[in-house]
Design a protein that fits this description.
Elements: H1 2-27, H2 38-47, H3 50-65, H4 76-95, H5 101-105, H6 109-139, H7 141-144, H8 153-170, H9 172-183, E1 188-189, H10 197-224, H11 226-231, H12 255-267, E2 274-275, H13 276-292, H14 307-316, H15 327-332, H16 338-349, H17 353-359
Parallel strand pairs: 1-2
């Protein structure tokens, strides 16, 4: 059951990423009119209330073209910035529809982005975590775990408390990402056609490999630097036994700790071209992955660093620092496979009574 659970989650995540990226590349509009902001008006009207749509177009025209040239052609970079702003405004409308318009008008775009990301992180955490816990511990718990291995309700509530306190700060990082992207400071692009499908795939894997490497080191340094572990990372390592881990432990960090481990996702946007929707789906996938690797189910999906690898990290402390894959741990000599771990623990326990009798 564990093999199917984890292999299925990996396949679903990759299939979702591929399908949505293809939809984006196939169906996004193919450009903004060369004689002004007419297409921007379509984008704005689709995502903003009437008065806000008009203001969006006027602000876009002034900020990207200048006061004296309202009909000057837009460069592709300017088109991208307008697309990013319109998409973010659309997402704000979806998440903040309940907020009175006068309240929203008083908030800056950055604050709206922060609130929206906070709401979406909470929904992802509680809904997905709740479904995961139900199926893992209740629907299939007797098939997946031995007696005493399922975490107590008190342990799960403690993890939810720690994560809930950290969420407002977690939400700052994606809000900062959007701010940097809208300013044009990153190498993020809005359409797969901007680079072509082949380069899009190359960019994706370069970004993923770099993020994997830097997440490994940010995680490892939080262990190796004593004050970093003492003041930040030890909160997450309170859950150091198999029966204390649950999907809700995935975000149960000191918020500074969680942000430090996620910073490579932001840092690499300045150095590697990255498709905007693909990047957002990766962040969504990371939210799923943090649930996955804390459920203590051995999925046997090497070279993917599944939950059993991460459980070993929580019990051994100095092994298996990796994010999605095992190759960086293998490169730096910190990988401990579940099979090697089981052999090591069996050697420490010594031979069982049955083995001793067999030797007599």
């Amino acid at each position: 059951m564990g093999d199917r659970t984890h292999a299925g989650s990996v396949v679903v995540a990759l299939a979702t990423l591929a399908c949505l990226t293809w939809i984006t590349s196939s169906h996004q509009p193919h450009g903004i009119g060369m004689n002004g902001l007419s297409a921007v008006g379509v984008l704005a009207n689709a995502s903003l209330p009437g008065a806000q749509a008009g203001a969006f177009q006027r602000d876009a025209s002034r900020s990207l073209q200048g006061e004296g040239s309202p009909t000057a052609p837009l460069t592709r970079k300017q088109e991208q910035l307008l697309e990013f702003r319109s998409e973010n405004a659309f997402k704000d409308d979806l998440a903040l529809f309940w907020m009175p318009s006068e309240w929203r008008d008083a908030l800056s775009p950055f604050v709206q982005s922060w609130l929206r990301n906070w709401i979406m992180v909470a929904i992802l955490y509680y809904v997905l975590g709740g479904v995961w816990v139900y199926y893992t511990y209740y629907a299939f718990g007797d098939q997946l775990f031995k007696p005493g291995e399922i975490p107590t309700f008190a342990a799960v509530l403690e993890q939810m408390r720690v994560a809930s306190m950290a969420m407002p700060l977690y939400a700052l990082l994606p809000a900062c990402n959007e701010f940097f992207i809208e300013k044009g400071w990153t190498l993020v692009y809005s359409r797969v056609s901007d680079y072509g499908l082949a380069w899009h795939v190359v960019n994706f894997w370069v970004y993923m490999i770099c993020v994997e490497y830097f997440v490994y080191w940010s995680h490892r340094l939080l262990h190796d630097i004593k004050w970093g572990y003492r003041w930040l990372h030890h909160i997450h390592h309170k859950y150091n036994k198999e029966h204390t881990l649950s999907p809700f432990a995935g975000l149960a960090f000191n918020p500074v700790d969680g942000i430090l481990q996620a910073v490579p996702y932001t840092f690499m946007l300045f150095f590697t071209p990255m498709h905007s929707l693909t990047h957002e789906l990766m962040l969504f996938g990371t939210g799923i992955w943090t649930n996955n690797i804390h459920d203590n189910i051995h999925g046997k999906v090497d070279p993917v660093m599944g939950a059993r690898y991460h459980t070993i990290h929580h019990t051994m402390y100095n092994k298996n620092y990796g994010h999605y894959f095992t190759f960086v741990d293998r490169l730096h000599g910190t990988l401990l496979t579940p099979e090697d771990y089981d052999e090591m623990m069996a050697a420490r326990r010594g031979p069982s009574e049955a083995q001793l009798k067999a030797l007599q």
